Amino acid sequence: MESTINIYELFSTMIKHNVILIYHGMFDQEMIKSVLIMTEKKLEQEKVEEALKKKLFNVMIEGLQNVAKHQMVLNPENHPFLMIGKDRDSFSVVTGNYIHHDKIMIVREKIDKVNSLNKEELKEYYKQARLKSVISEVGGAGLGFIDMARKSGNKLDYQFFEMDANHSLFILNSQISQ
Amino acid sequence: MTTLKITGTEDTPDIVYSPEGNEFVISGRSLPEDVSNFYKPVFEWLEQLTSTHGNSLKFVFKLEYFNTASSKIILDILLKLEEIQAEGKNSFSIEWYYTDGDDDMVEAGEEYKELVEIPFNILAA
A101, A113, B24, B71: which could form a disulfide with B17 (CB 3.0–4.6 Å)? Predict the structure, then answer.
């Protein structure tokens, strides 16, 4: 990083956009545990309600483990990232990770399907998907997006940014409200 | 039935079965990196039930958080119990605990309750 002025500007930008935590690097179980502990401290300071805290934690766990299981590194400057934002009584969990273009369609279809369902339909969809689920080689149950949508109570917001001929940055934003 | 004891950590639950109490208790957080590997001893322990009879066991779930992979594993445990009970040699009951205000945990319990034919009580911790 450059001069202290820039650092102050950077910090102000974070504050202005209600960002409480940023991480840029590889995701693994140890990192996930540390982020959960840090978030827990912050929530204690802010006296966040237990129910909201639980929802946030559930969404974080799914979102972060998802990245840990599917992350790829394009080059040393392009690791996955995490941003957590807090705006009055809601939180946002944003993750970014690089994916191969041939995976985009399947991710898009999964999320669009989840976003097309209402609360009751999601519940039923989760139930059916769990019955059919088989734990994958990387230890996933294929239920992450459904659970994130259920626990957050909101549609999952996502974007893909093309990085090079073969890869895109996949950004997933979950809003968690009371 | 032999003793089962797995000490909990920040991301894995505490799992205890002691033959004296006839009670299997799983508590804490379940978000292991590798669920299949973590729960392997539990399924091995459950296997013993298939070759014994006359057991009347209570399975207690006191979980704070669990990830979706654990949610699938819990379903597999419950379905295994249902299968063993259906053979008619053993009987089981389930207690599913939630902390006050944790509606998602109540709902999770209700969803399991609908799926298995085992006496299932959802209780406030």
Answer: B24
